[in-house]
Amino acid sequence: MAVIPYPHIDPVLLHIYGPIAIRWYALSYLTGLLLGWWVILKMIAQKSLWVGPPFNGTPPATADDIGDLVVWVTLGVVIGGRIGWVIFYGIILCSVSSGADQGSCTGLPGDFLAHPLRIFAAWDGGMSFHGGAVGVIVAIILFCRRRGLALFAIGDLVCAVQPIGQFFGRIANFINGELWGKPTNVPWAMIFPRAPDAVPTPRHPSQLYEAALEGVLLFVILQIGIRYFRWNERPGLTSGVFLVGYGVTRFIVEFFREPDAPFLGNMSMGQALSFLFVLGGFAVLWIAYGRRPAAAA
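^ that's the sequence the OP posted. Answer follows.
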């Protein structure tokens, strides 16, 4: 059967000493955060983006503000991502799914009570994008209240660069050979060594689909919208488009991705959460278009 060979890459980039190592997955988080930080700094330094109302020549934040915001966002990603996985997948999905005794659901959610430290064991696998996104939203709200910054304008900056982190995160998933797709006979199918197949089965490289759609495509759309259609002059518009765009692309990719376990009929947990993101995105768009352009908060 003609398939594209899966590139066997060690998930550990560099072994330092004993259990201490640098992993591609951790490096992807760091790279996404640093590149996102750099792009936002470039955006606030580009005076042409902020000449019109409601900014009138003044960017919504300073470089120092963004540097501090990166710390808050990092905490939001890590804490929200883990809590989201524990709640959405470890508790809800593993409780209602018929596949709760298989794969990542083994022993859950009961193990969280018997072994509470498993709640924090993100190194054993288990980070939720949707949970991380909620964590980032909470971090942005708290940060803006603390600094007196315009919430929607700052949210737009973060959403404009988030696909960078999404791209690197999905590439790391591919390197780890995890979150593989459903069986298929397409010419670009791959056999993932970690997939629980009795017989090697070609599957969709769904991690690459997500990197392309949720990462590259969404980043390009948002940057074009800001730089050529001046979405940033209507605070909240970029954030709303991001939420809808991510929700739609993730919902589509879930048809090709092997779900953790069935959730609501044919709908996976990822699709259910993405549907809520789409609804939330339309709500933000409604707020953005319902506000007077002069209001940046």
